[in-house]
Specification:
Blueprint: H1 2-17, E1 25-31, H2 50-58, E2 60-62, E3 65-66, H3 72-81, H4 85-88, E4 104-105, H5 120-124, E5 130-135, E6 156-158, H6 171-177, H7 184-198, E7 204-209, H8 221-228, H9 240-262, E8 269-275, H10 305-308, E9 309-310, E10 312-315, E11 324-326, E12 330-331, H11 335-343, H12 349-352, H13 361-365, E13 375-379, E14 390-394, E15 399-403, E16 409-412, H14 429-445, E17 452-453
Parallel strand pairs: 1-7, 1-8, 2-11, 3-12, 5-6, 5-7
Antiparallel strand pairs: 2-10, 3-9, 4-17, 8-10, 13-14, 14-15, 15-16
Helix pairs in contact: 7-9, 8-9
The protein binds calcium ion.
Calcium ion binds at residues 32-33, 72, 214, 276-277.
Length: 469
């Protein structure tokens, strides 16, 4: 009790004494569908990411960083709230995929972010932060108005200009706005830089949710031409258009860092870069083989590490050691409490009572700092790149996957077998049973929604997808 009171008093004192101008800026850069090996410093043999590599050399790289889900929207919701998607009941991307004849009926999930949650930009208001949203939101209920970023605490939001097809801004808009580039990522970067410049004197939270390198696979023409010359089919990564998209992302990061430097803000800014799920490795048509997450197994939508292990970099001069690497497992739920701590803000106690993430500041200061916990995933859905509805749990050594269609579990010694090649479920029985119980208890504790046997199951039609409702 005495300790608690002292901690609370210290936190109040810290909040009172830190004026708005002392607080660091927070820049959160979220790639879309960039896999674990999606940058050069994280192991790509083809993509060129000098700016992200420089950010890594100036900060900390996380080799075991995770997204809270194997697809988009749930991970974004976990970042905004610090909670597991299963707790939010936002377990699939907003439009989702309904397979009326599959073996399981998927639960009815939240197709948007409920306003009752205190989002990270809302919480940061306490510290006088200006919150800037750039790019892809992907958290609005399709049948309701006023669900965008500015309805969830952002002061300003910039998205792709109307009439943009995929990544290409229309010729008319390019002319009207006098743009130098018709590539949407370049345009959004211009907007982010304008907002950084407008924020001088006030701490800001910049959430830049890139579209790159999500489908459609469309690169900036000059960059595509550059990578076409360099394709080597013996390499793991070999799609020049995809490489151009990653390059656009990297160039954007370089321009943002330059802008922070120019405005004298770089030393007072925590920058975090990560991705919302793994790389898309399913193949179709002319876009055959966009990317690979090897040595990880599979990719976006799947139950394996390729779906959820992502690159992550954090930089904050003077606080995060330069060129450090941390093997501590972290997950996208962690950024919410981390940003509160970085800003010296307590946040909303009601909301924080249900946080699933932990404050990463101790790891930022010491990359070898361990966090004693289990990480969980719950995806009771079907996905084109997937393996059916599943849940998973991991600790430092083991990862267990439970498949809901069959009740089968697989167990991997993840610290040694990163590619999940040897299923040890029939070998390490005790570990298997302990983790299975742990996973079930966790699901129960947050009232996770489960898929149920489908009375209309038709084995011949089970992969058929219904049109979006
Ligand atoms: Ca995504």
């Amino acid at each position: 009790m005495r300790t608690l009171t002292r901690v609370t008093l210290l936190a109040v004192f810290a909040t009172l004494t830190a004026s708005a101008s002392d607080r660091p800026n927070i820049v959160f850069l979220l790639a879309d569908d960039l896999g674990w090996t999606g940058t050069a410093s994280f192991g790509s043999d083809f993509y060129e990411t000098p700016n992200l590599d420089r950010l890594a050399s100036k900060g900390m790289s996380f080799t075991q960083a995770y997204s809270a889900c194997t697809v988009c929207s749930p991970t974004r919701a976990s970042i905004m709230t610090g909670m597991y998607p299963a707790r939010l009941r936002l377990t699939d991307f907003i439009s989702g995929q309904n397979r009326p004849y599959a073996r399981m009926t998927i639960p009815d999930w939240n197709k948007g972010l409920e306003k009752r949650h205190v989002t990270i930009p809302e919480a940061l208001k306490e510290g006088g932060y200006r919150a800037i949203h750039i790019g892809k939101w992907h958290l609005d209920y399709p049948d309701q108005d006023n669900q965008g970023p500015t309805a969830h605490g952002f002061d300003v939001s910039h998205e792709k200009p109307a009439g943009t097809r995929g990544y290409y801004i229309s010729e008319k808009t390019v002319k009207e706005l006098g743009l130098e580039s018709n590539y949407a990522t370049d345009y959004l970067t211009d907007k982010a830089i304008e907002e950084i410049e407008k924020s001088r004197g006030q701490p800001f939270f910049l959430y830049f949710a890139y579209h790159t390198p999500h489908t459609p696979i469309q690169g900036r023409e000059d960059l595509v031409a550059y990578f076409e010359e360099k394709v080597d089919t013996n390499k793991i990564h070999k799609n020049p258009v995809y490489a151009a998209m990653v390059k656009s992302l990297d160039m954007s990061v370089g321009r943002l860092v330059d802008s922070l430097k120019k405005n004298g803000q770089l030393d007072n800014t925590l920058i975090v870069f990560t991705s919302d799920n793994g790389g898309l490795t399913q193949r179709y048509g002319k876009h055959d083989n966009f990317t690979e997450n090897l040595p990880l197994r599979r990719g976006k939508g799947s139950a394996y590490e390729g779906g959820v292990r992502v690159p992550a970099i954090a930089s904050w001069p003077g606080t995060i050691p330069e060129g450090a690497t941390s093997g501590t497992p972290i997950i996208s739920n962690d950024y919410y409490p981390t940003f509160l701590a970085a800003a010296g803000i307590e946040g909303d106690s009601g909301h924080n009572a249900n946080l699933d993430g932990v404050n990463l500041m101790p790891v930022f200061r010491n990359p070898n700092k361990a966090i004693k916990r289990h990480l969980y995933w719950h995806y009771p859905h079907y996905h084109a790149g997937g393996d059916g509805p599943y849940s998973a749990v991991r600790n430092d050594l083991w990862r267990l996957v439970e498949f809901h269609e069959t009740g089968n579990v697989e167990l991997y010694r993840i610290d040694r077998d990163i590619g999940e090649t040897e299923n040890r479920a029939e070998i390490n029985l005790k570990t298997r049973d302990q983790l299975k119980i742990k996973l079930q208890k966790w699901r129960k504790s947050i009232a996770a929604q489960m898929p149920t046997p489908n009375p209309n199951h038709d084995p011949e039609r089970e992969t058929e997808v219904a049109r979006n409702r």
